[in-house]
Write a structure and sequence with these properties.
The protein is about 35% helix and about 30% strand. The strands form 5 sheets. Strands 19, 20, 21, 22, 23, 24, 25, 26 and 27 form a 9-stranded mixed β-sheet that branches. It has a 7-stranded mixed β-sheet with strand order 5-8-2-3-4-1-9. The longest helix is centred in the C-terminal third of the chain and has 60 residues.
């Protein structure tokens, strides 16, 4: 038995029943925290929106997020196909803070690694996974919960100050989204996109020009396509011009504003401009007046086409607009009408009249010799150009008009034309009888071949080779024999010199003793005369005996010489 009294035991049991256990505080606190978290989650939960994409590449339910400037704006709840199975519908639970941004002007797109607008983006998603980016609009808008996502990110992904202008073009060329807009070789903006007109007859390009470059866009500004590179071969040599390396890859647009003090106001947003195909066309747009002409050629105009220049003394004054073929029934010949326009404003101080006065002025110019002729513009490319000038020696002609076009008489080709001279040279080369020359050359080569391969010639060459060998041996022998004699030449030369001196002395003595005035000389002269007479007598006797040998026996008769 226990020593503790019974009353103490009863009191302890009653005390336990009356007190509250602390273990009940745990579920109470847990329930309170859960309720608080649920209330907080409910109070911070934003609207439920749907975004449709062409594909759900890289997106995962309950894992992919919606972000704006790297701030979490929501979580993807579900990914499903649309009713027609053509698109993917992504259900997103947005945060409460994102509710004011969900307007009809907000844009969504999936951020993944891609090459777009000339740059690589989304490389960070290689480790973190793809997500949906949100670009709200700063212009307000109506609340919206159903959106159509972009397949490519927008070119401008933030509120960049600047203005958007509309450029009207016939062709888009090599322009792309994000193509740069250049102002004096500086990147001043990007192309946001374009709209195609009715039946694709024209294209409206949306060009965004950032501040502070947008203040240089005036109503007289000119925009032109600056894609790729420009190569020109002219009086200054070969010129290679590139606006920028980015413009080579993506294409580009350039603009400039003339320094015109009359126009100082800046253009308003969405102002429409013409997009010219190149800078030359943009510069020519300042000339407002043009006069149409036509020249009828009866020969080939190869190398001449739309856009070919019309030159006056080396300077461009217009360009060809159209080249066609027409059959002339009266002349029974095919004529090539070349339509071109002249811009009188290119010639300073030239004041051409209008209306009927222009006809009178043109009549006078044609009477003075206004003509047009075809010349070569480039030997390398074969491009042709029209040259228009006054030629005083031209044949007389009268003014004619083909509708609104003035018909200008055509002048024949000039001998100064390099292409014509080259053609004449080719014709002369063609007239050379190369075939006959080749045949004669073949015959000559055949004769030479026969001579070279002749057997007698070979034998002669062999004999000549043997003779040369013998001569070489003789020369070697002489070299061996002459060498000792050559060493004695100085002594022989000294002896000869002494002999010559003695001979001179002897000749002097003989001249003194037996000279022309000496007695010995006179005796010798008489002796020589006597010898001559004796010789003559002997010759006479010999002749007589040869004719009359019997004279040796009979002697000489009185009959004289027989």
């Amino acid at each position: 038995m226990s020593d503790r009294p019974p009353s103490a035991i009863v009191r302890s049991m009653l005390d336990r029943k009356r007190g509250v256990s602390l273990i009940w505080a745990i579920p109470v606190v847990t329930l309170f925290i859960g309720g608080w978290l649920a209330w907080r989650t409910w109070s911070e939960r934003g609207p439920l929106i749907t975004i449709s994409f062409e594909t759900a590449e890289g997106l995962q339910a309950t894992q992919s997020h919606v972000r704006h400037k790297e701030v979490d704006m929501g979580v993807v709840q579900k990914i499903a196909l649309s009713a027609d199975l053509s698109r993917v519908v992504v259900t997103v639970r947005m945060n409460k803070e994102a509710a004011p941004l969900l307007t009809d002007k907000a844009r969504f797109w999936v951020v993944r690694p891609r090459f777009f607008a000339g740059s690589i983006s989304g490389l960070s998603t290689l480790f973190s996974g793809s997500y949906i980016d949100l670009l709200p609009s700063g212009e307000g808008g109506e609340p919206q919960t159903d959106f159509v996502g972009l397949e490519n990110p927008p070119v401008l992904q933030s509120d960049v100050p600047g203005r958007t202008f509309l450029l009207d073009a016939n062709r888009i060329g090599s322009l792309n989204l994000g193509s740069p807009i250049l102002f004096r070789d500086l990147e001043a903006g990007e192309i946001l996109g374009w709209d195609v007109g009715e039946m694709a007859r024209n294209i409206t390009v949306h060009a965004f020009v950032r501040a502070p470059f947008d203040k240089y866009v005036h109503d007289n500004s000119r925009f032109w396509n600056a894609s790729g590179a420009t190569v020109q071969l002219g009086a200054n040599g070969l010129q290679f011009q590139v606006e920028s390396l980015r413009a080579i890859v993506l294409g580009g647009i350039a603009f400039d504003t003339p320094d015109d003090p009359k126009i100082t106001g800046e253009s308003l947003p969405n102002r429409a401009f013409t997009l010219y195909p190149n800078k030359e066309a943009a510069d020519a747009s300042v000339f407002k007046r043009s006069v149409p002409f036509v020249a009828n050629f009866t020969t080939s105009v190869s190398g001449l086409g739309s856009g070919s220049p019309v030159m006056l003394r080396g300077q461009k004054i217009g360009e060809v607009s159209r080249v066609s073929l027409v059959y002339d029934r009266a002349a029974d010949n095919v004529v090539v009408p070349v339509h071109f326009t002249l811009e009188p404003e290119r010639i300073a101080m030239l004041d051409l009249p209008t209306d009927g006065d222009l006809d009178s002025r043109m009549r006078e110019l044609i009477h003075r010799g206004l003509r047009v002729k075809l010349e070569s513009g480039s030997i390398l490319t074969g491009q042709k150009q029209l040259v228009m000038d006054i030629f005083p020696g031209a044949e007389p002609a009268v003014l004619r008009k083909d509708g609104e076009d003035y018909v200008v008489p055509v002048l024949g080709g000039s001998a100064d034309d390099v292409a014509t001279a080259a053609a004449n040279l080719v014709n002369r080369l063609n007239s050379i009888p190369f075939e006959t020359i080749g045949q004669n050359l073949n015959q000559t080569l055949a004769g030479v071949n026969g001579l070279v391969n002749d057997r007698q010639l070979g034998q002669s060459i062999a004999a000549l080779r043997a003779t040369l060998a013998s001569t070489r041996e003789l020369v070697d022998s002489l070299n061996r024999d002459v060498a000792p004699a050559a060493r004695r030449l100085p002594a022989i030369s000294a002896g000869l010199e002494e002999a010559v001196n003695r001979t001179n002395k002897l000749i002097g003595s003989v001249e003194t003793g037996y000279g022309g005035d000496s007695r010995f000389s006179r005796d010798v002269d008489r002796l020589m005369m006597q010898l001559s007479d004796a010789s003559r007598s002997i010759r006479v006797l010999a002749d007589l005996l040869s004719r009359h040998p019997e004279a040796l026996i009979r002697g000489r008769t009185d009959q004289g010489l027989q």
